[in-house]
Design goal:
Blueprint (H helix, E strand, L loop, with lengths): L5 H4 L4 E5 L11 E5 L48 E3 L2 E3 L5 H14 L5 H11 L6 H16 L12 E14 L6 E14 L3 E2 L4 E13 L2 E4 L3 H4 L13 H6 L2 E2 L4
Helix pairs in contact: 3-4
Amino acid sequence: MAEFDSKARKARLRLILMGTVVVATLAAGGVLGVMTLNADDDDLKQDPKAAPSASSSSITSPPTAKEFTPADAPSIPLLKPKSNAEGIGTGFEHSSLGATSAAISYWEDLDLLDDVIARKQWTAIAAKDSPGTIDQGVTEVRKVREGVGLPPSGGTPDGITFSTNVKAALARSLDTSGDVINVWMVFDRYATIRDKGADENPLKDEVTNLILKWENNDWKVTTDPQYTAKVKYPRTYDPDSKYAWAEGWREVANG
């Protein structure tokens, strides 16, 4: 998760509604608030040839080896968590794949509307060097709640469920040890409402990132400035782009 800068604090709150828009009460319709706790997505949804990352020197010309795209290259075989803490999977191996698997698992499982559950989850996965990550994560959940007309604190309204599906990821080490890894993710988010079915207007192709640090034999989320300052935006993800593949984007096996 990139630093909670002014862009992130502007809250990219989007509502996914099923049927009539309802703000004051969810009983008459469905709503999904989406938080981006990191870099501003609009900065990434740009021309794929614009603003290449620090590693762009390797992709300024078409690759000379076999040219893949994320869609036709082997996908990432995600690892399963070996343990569970406060409703979120933990216990990922000490490797780049372990960090990528942890980031995707965390992002898909974090609670979006229940601030009590969210606090427990963030406490379980936050690194010791950035305890403010916990409060920041909970604050974003409360912003979402207020944005859809709910009290700042409370549980998810009965009959509403959410699902987040990470489709592609890109992992980069932020230090020479490989113990701090930034993972970019492209994801879709859906709402399902009892007696109304699946969401007709899901969020699609959202982009976010988490920075993970190897700590106490597991990957923990850090927002320490010494690491967030090293984060570079990658090229825009495109499943059919050989440049996206060369940049490091890979489809997720269960995405």
